[in-house]
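User: I'm putting together a teaching handout on how sequence relates to shape, and I'd like one worked example. Could you take DUF5071 domain-containing protein from Paenibacillus mucilaginosus, show the sequence you're using, and then write out its predicted structure as tokens right after it?

Assistant: Happy to. First the sequence, then the structure tokens directly below it.
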Amino acid sequence: MDHLREYLPKDKHDFESVAVLKGLEREKITELIPNLLEWLRDMNWPIAAEIARLLLRYPEEVIPHLWMVLRSGDEIWKYWCLEYLVGELPRIHFLVFKEELERIANQPTRGEELEEVHSAARRVLEFFGTN
């Protein structure tokens, strides 16, 4: 993994690195997914949306890492990942998260409620017509 760090964005304005990432082969991107997901902690960062679009090219590889986010205590990160990744996945991949999204939508933790993660979960469920 250390040999791949050179490809990671250096700061929130590093669109050059994002452009290079788009040209990398699947195996390299797969190794970088946990680091790339970190950029989705704040979708106000200029490169965040581009990274989300890049990650959506690898739905099967991203799913295990999205589970890590959904099980974390970082409610804002959950919110952004629901809005920009889970809600944009192909339906077959979305279904993996359906039960957890129903839990968040209907029985959110206090933190999920405060940060409106439950609302994001409802929107995703509604989009896929499963609520």
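A couple of points you could highlight for students: Residues 65 and 119 are 22 Å apart (CA to CA). The chain has one domain: 2-127.
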